[in-house]
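Q: I'm building a small set of examples for a reading group on sequence design. Run inverse folding on the following structure and report the sequence directly after it, with nothing in between.
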């Protein structure tokens, strides 16, 4: 009997590992290329719209760059808007790991911010600002988590579609805030715009040293990193991925799918509530209609463009924060309404949804398609 060649034994495993690495990198390239293609197509379609209005697409995108990223002041405005977008995008991305489409971050943000302002009212001028901020943060996170957790519970116990329930809960949350802000908690010293009393300058969250942006940005980036570890590097995240991929198989393996749904929903709401806390404690200083600024709805686009990856949410949120920050300069220089950037965002969302059909269908990123056709 001839002895086996020791050199030839690892050949097949090595080839298999090399092919696995190649497929992995092709997957990464596809996940990056298709969203970028969607953005490019959106820009081209929006350029056609601008040309129809007699406006210059080149000037528009130059102003987007200048207003969002061209100066230090522009960067401050961009990062100021990117912080809540990161948190509201997480509120969409975390439930998506379980196959859920939750779009209620706007309501959780508004109700979380209102709760933070409401609990601060009896403490103004009587307790330590640090203690007041801690109480406000805790209230915002808990209320946001419980509010979105309600939608998760409706999904678990009654089979209610979470997309519809979270959308309706958002309108209810805004109505609750308006009811109290225009009624029992309205500041009589501000007759123009209904709002709660100001929490005071001493209780406002300060700015990160070296940049003109509040600490909410650091908390938002930290939340993205923490939830990346939780959802992609722990058994809890693996269980969520299994439950999202095949709920019946997950139940057959003994995974508590219903409990995972509720927990993921509460984590999502807590992220949105945290965004509401910083909008009150670091930006507005009080609760009013300015809390419903559309961050929750733009966060849906950010999450989808980032493919629900917590770390990818960071640069995508900065990109859309820059687009939003450029709205003012576009209005002044080109005579376009400030809502032009909202139109661009909506167009991006539609094209992005249409591009979902391209995954797994492009021969460039799928060697199996190439071999099937040869």
């Amino acid at each position: 009997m001839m002895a086996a060649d020791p050199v030839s034994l690892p050949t097949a495993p090595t080839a298999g590992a090399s092919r696995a690495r190649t497929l992995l990198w092709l997957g990464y390239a596809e996940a990056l290329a298709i969203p970028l293609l969607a953005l490019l197509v959106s820009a081209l379609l929006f350029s056609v719209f601008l040309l129809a209005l007699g406006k210059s697409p080149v000037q528009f995108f130059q102003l987007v760059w200048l207003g969002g990223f061209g100066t230090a002041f522009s960067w401050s405005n961009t990062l100021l808007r990117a912080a809540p977008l990161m948190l509201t995008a997480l509120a969409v991305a975390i439930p998506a790991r379980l196959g859920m489409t939750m779009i209620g971050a706007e309501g959780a943000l508004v109700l979380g911010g209102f709760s933070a302002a409401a609990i601060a009212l009896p403490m103004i001028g009587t307790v330590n600002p640090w203690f007041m901020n801690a109480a406000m943060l805790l209230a915002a996170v808990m209320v946001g988590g419980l509010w979105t957790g309600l939608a998760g519970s409706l999904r678990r116990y009654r089979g209610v579609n979470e997309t519809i329930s979270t959308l309706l809960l958002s309108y209810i949350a805004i109505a609750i805030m308006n009811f109290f802000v225009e009624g029992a908690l309205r500041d009589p010293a501000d007759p123009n715009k209904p709002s709660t009393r100001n929490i005071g300058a001493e209780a406002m969250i300060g700015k990160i040293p070296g940049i003109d942006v509040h600490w909410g940005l650091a908390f938002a980036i930290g939340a993205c990193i923490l939830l990346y570890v939780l959802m992609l590097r722990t058994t809890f995240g693996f269980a969520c991925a299994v439950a999202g991929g095949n709920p019946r198989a997950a139940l057959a393996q003994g995974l508590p799918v219903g409990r995972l749904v509720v927990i993921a929903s509460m984590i999502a709401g807590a992220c949105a509530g945290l965004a509401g806390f910083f909008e009150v404690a670091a930006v507005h200083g009080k609760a009013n209609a300015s809390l419903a600024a559309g961050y929750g709805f733009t966060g849906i686009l950010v999450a989808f463009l980032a493919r629900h990856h917590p770390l990818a949410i960071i640069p995508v949120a900065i990109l859309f924060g820059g687009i939003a920050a450029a709205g003012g300069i576009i209005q002044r220089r080109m005579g376009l309404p400030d809502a032009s950037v909202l139109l661009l965002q909506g167009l991006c969302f539609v094209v992005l949804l249409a591009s979902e059909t391209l995954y797994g269908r492009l021969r460039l990123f799928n060697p199996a398609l190439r071999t099937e056709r040869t």
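The radius of gyration is 24 Å.
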